Amino acid sequence: MTKRDPFYAPRIDEEIWAFIDRTDSFYPPDTVDADIATQRAVYDEMCAAFRQKRPSGLSVRDESIPGGDGEIPIRRYQPHATAEPAAIVIYCHGGGFVVGGLESHDDVCAEIAAATGFSVVSVDYRLCPEHRHPAAYNDVLAAFEAISKEGNPIILCGDSAGGNLAAAVCLAIRHRPDAPAGQVLIYPGLGGEIMGLPSYREEAHAPLLTTRDVMFYKNVRVEGEVPGNDPTYAPLSARDFTGAAPCVIVTADCDPLRDDGATYVKRLRDAGVEAEWINEPGLVHGYLRARTSSERAKHSFARICDAIARLGAAAGR
């Protein structure tokens, strides 16, 4: 059982502690010190243990699109009842830019498609350290370029590292006629560690993601110095947020990345962009995998699906 830090013991309920214990049994806190191949194997095993059966009523197929380094694998989830979806969700998985792929978030993407009635496209972007920044960003941008040709409004969505990629693409193409109609970011890492936001100190030893872990993922993305002013690397480093897509950010209160969401929403609002921040008390990084075992996580996932549905419906009107 995970040692219960007195700082977190009163903030986290028994269902989330059980989720933390189960996660740590597959993916121990020191996994970040292992070699990359081991990290991926351990992460894949953990995701498989938590994976839920896809909802019925979906057509799921694997495809590929042209990218900067050959073909980019994608997986499309299409609700049977929706002949022409009001919007398409492009989903970018989490995993610190190092682990994860189409399988790790398969059930999450399927459930979003079922809950919203939208088509969901999961992007298997290239991972570090074999493919450093901006490879992952370029792959998500290429996926947007290909899918936008279908003519549907697009909602960019992602968790953790995937939230970073979704936000970065939204900012980069915000003034184009085919710009995304919305963005939903789930406990995203947006560059707050570079800015030294308070949550990186206050939640430095949070369960399932520590500030030390964040620094590893930050440094593995590049060779040499971390970019200081590159919004495709750290969206919070952008100087201009005007014209960005309407945004909903959902963060976990017990997470070093928490203040990235609050700060990003403030930047968007200051630029006149519609933006909402939902901070979930008692939840930890990676809680999407707890949505079937924790009432708090279950309700948060419902709020996430509702946000995607609202943004997509507004774009389709």
UniProtKB/TrEMBL annotation:
InterPro entries: AB_hydrolase_3 (IPR013094), AB_hydrolase_fold (IPR029058), GDXG_lipolytic_enzyme (IPR050300). It holds the Pfam family Abhydrolase_3. GO terms for molecular function: hydrolase activity. It comes from the Bacteria. SUPFAM superfamilies: alpha/beta-Hydrolases. Residues 89-288 form the Alpha/beta hydrolase fold-3 domain. Keywords: Hydrolase. PANTHER family: AB HYDROLASE SUPERFAMILY PROTEIN C4A8.06C, ALPHA_BETA HYDROLASE FOLD-3 DOMAIN-CONTAINING PROTEIN-RELATED. This is Alpha/beta hydrolase.
